[in-house]
């Protein structure tokens, strides 16, 4: 169930109504008052802002029941989520003020010319003398935004701005949203190449499959900075981290469990690849038309690759059929596809990661009582398996060691590092994955990623704490 927080500004006529009436009306309509601010006190009338936590489906009911209450004038209803987006969520700030002509001639012409000449003579100096060393582009074409689909580059911007905020707050990385008005693979590749000089890394985001695979592979080959499609690899890394811990909770091993992955797009392909690399022996990838089976013929190279893997099962079937007797379900498809009955047909001690955003593959309220370990991509339930646990730390590490690319050992190291933040004594059904606010996450991921980059020869710099 989706919840929202609304602020109701209302004027009360004290002769006709008291605050107790208002509170009980809101509560009866299904709202939960979380705060009250008096905006204008008064003997006869007063104005208050009442913040109410409310499920989406009863929001209109709360508003309507207040409108019906005698003595109440509803002045305004604001949605707090929209309020935090007013004017956008990020801005660009200079690192120093320009106070006088002297400063001006240093930061801009003529002084800046000497710095530009130095970089022209030695391009490596771009890392020390410009924002390149700490700046990442978050690039989308708006075609697979969360689970909302192809909503276009303008509508994708709030998600990309949100990622930029998280990059900065969690890892000190300056990230800038780039929302491209093209879906053409060649045009996306050439645009990213053309803008790449100022960036130390590229985070591809919410670009739909299968174009995302070619875009990432070509850019990784043609540029010497890390290219990381977060929906593929960030998601796969956090799934492996969560699964390592969930398997410990239920006492099963990676090479024993039968795993169904639903939604073989950007996230699903990368999850399947990483599961195979982690030793999974029984894998059932499923998309809209049912299971992708060993020996099958498919329109996309990544599905054909899966059909060649010996660990992929050869029995066709719909999701509802193949989920029977699965130990683990991983959903990166779209919301509300599974019923409680489907989940009950899995083995005992079942693990369900229903990660579609914003609505998971099964309603958490239906799943929680019938699964041993349950996780979603959302922050309002325990076990938030979201790639936000990955991208800040992985880019922090890659930028700090100036990695040429982000390779498989770096990804595996990141997954293990995230899993290890939850200690053996803390681990339980409700706590298989650390919170994104756990300060150890970025530190440990960064450390593991740099170590792996140095060992695999992709680091171009050894950070001081590794010397
Ligand atoms: N929790 C997290 O950290 C993350 C969650 N996601 C979520 O995973 C979902 C997919 O994201 P992407 O892989 O980036 O998108 P995508 O568009 O690349 O892939 C989606 C895939 O799901 C398939 N699909 C759609 N309806 C289906 C159905 N009824 N049954 C089976 N498959 C179905 C599509 O055919 C497609 O192959 C989205 O809801 C997204 O929000 C994605 C990345 C991270
Ligand atoms: C979390 C994320 O990247 C997504 O849902 O697309
Ligand atoms: Mg995404």
From TrEMBL:
PROSITE patterns assigned: ACT, MALIC_ENZYMES
Family the UniProt entry places it in: Belongs to the malic enzymes family.
Cofactors, names only: Mn(2+); Mg(2+)
Protein name: Malate oxidoreductase
Residues annotated as binding (S)-malate: 357, 386
Entry keywords, A to Z: Metal-binding, Oxidoreductase
InterPro entries the UniProt entry points to: ACT_dom (IPR002912), Aminoacid_DH-like_N_sf (IPR046346), Malate_Decarboxylase (IPR051674), Malic_enzyme_CS (IPR015884), Malic_N_dom (IPR012301), Malic_N_dom_sf (IPR037062), Malic_NAD-bd (IPR012302), Malic_NAD-bd_bact_type (IPR045213)
Sample GO molecular function, one term: NAD binding
Cofactor binding remark: Divalent metal cations. Prefers magnesium or manganese.
Active site: 108, 163
Positions annotated to bind a divalent metal cation: 205-206, 231
Superkingdom of origin: Bacteria
Claim: Zinc is one of the keywords in the record: no
Domain ACT: 7-80
């Amino acid at each position: 169930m989706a919840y929202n927080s609304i602020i109701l500004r209302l004027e009360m006529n004290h002769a006709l109504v008291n605050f107790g009436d208002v509170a009980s009306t809101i509560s009866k309509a299904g709202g939960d008052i979380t705060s009250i601010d008096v905006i204008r006190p008064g003997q006869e009338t007063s104005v208050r802002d009442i913040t109410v936590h409310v499920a989406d489906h009863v929001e209109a009911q709360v508003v309507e029941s207040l409108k019906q209450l005698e003595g109440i004038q509803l002045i305004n209803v604001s949605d707090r989520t929209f309020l935090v987006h007013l004017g956008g969520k990020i801005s660009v700030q200079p690192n120093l003020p320009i106070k006088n002509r002297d400063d001006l001639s240093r930061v801009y012409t003529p002084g800046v010319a000497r710095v530009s000449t130095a970089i022209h003579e030695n391009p490596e100096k771009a890392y020390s003398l410009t924002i390149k060393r700490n700046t990442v582009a978050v690039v989308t074409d708006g075609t697979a935004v969360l689970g909302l689909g192809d909503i276009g580059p303008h509508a994708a911007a709030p998600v990309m701005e949100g990622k930029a905020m998280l990059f900065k707050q969690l890892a000190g990385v300056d990230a800038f949203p780039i929302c491209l008005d093209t879906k053409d693979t060649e045009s996306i590749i050439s645009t990213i190449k053309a803008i790449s000089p100022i960036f130390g890394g590229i985070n591809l985001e919410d670009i739909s499959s299968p174009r995302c695979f070619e875009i990432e592979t070509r850019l990784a080959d043609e540029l010497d900075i890390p290219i990381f499609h977060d929906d593929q690899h960030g998601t796969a890394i956090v799934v492996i981290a969560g699964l390592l811990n969930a398997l410990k909770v239920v006492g099963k091993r990676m090479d024993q469990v039968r795993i169904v992955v639903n939604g073989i797009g950007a996230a699903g392909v990368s999850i399947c690849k990483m599961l195979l690399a982690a030793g999974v022996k029984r894998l059932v990838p499923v998309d809209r038309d049912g299971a992708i089976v060993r020996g099958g013929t498919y329109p996309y190279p990544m599905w054909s690759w899966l059909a060649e893997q010996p660990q992929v099962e050869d029995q066709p079937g719909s999701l509802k059929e193949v989920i029977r007797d699965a130990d683990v379900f991983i959903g990166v498809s779209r919301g509300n596809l599974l019923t409680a009955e489907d989940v009950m047909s899995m083995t005992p001690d079942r693990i369900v990661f229903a990660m579609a955003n914003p609505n998971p593959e099964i309603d958490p309220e239906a799943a929680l009582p019938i699964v041993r370990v349950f996780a979603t991509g959302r922050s309002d339930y325990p076990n938030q398996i979201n790639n936000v646990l990955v991208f800040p730390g992985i880019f922090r590490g890659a930028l700090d060691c100036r990695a040429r690319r982000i390779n498989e050992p770096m990804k595996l190291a990141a997954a293990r590092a995230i899993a290890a933040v939850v200690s053996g004594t803390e681990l339980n059904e409700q706590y298989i994955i650390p919170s994104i606010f756990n300060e150890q996450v970025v530190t440990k991921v960064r450390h593991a990623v740099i170590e792996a980059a140095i060992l695999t020869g992709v680091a171009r710099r050894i950070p001081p704490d590794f010397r």
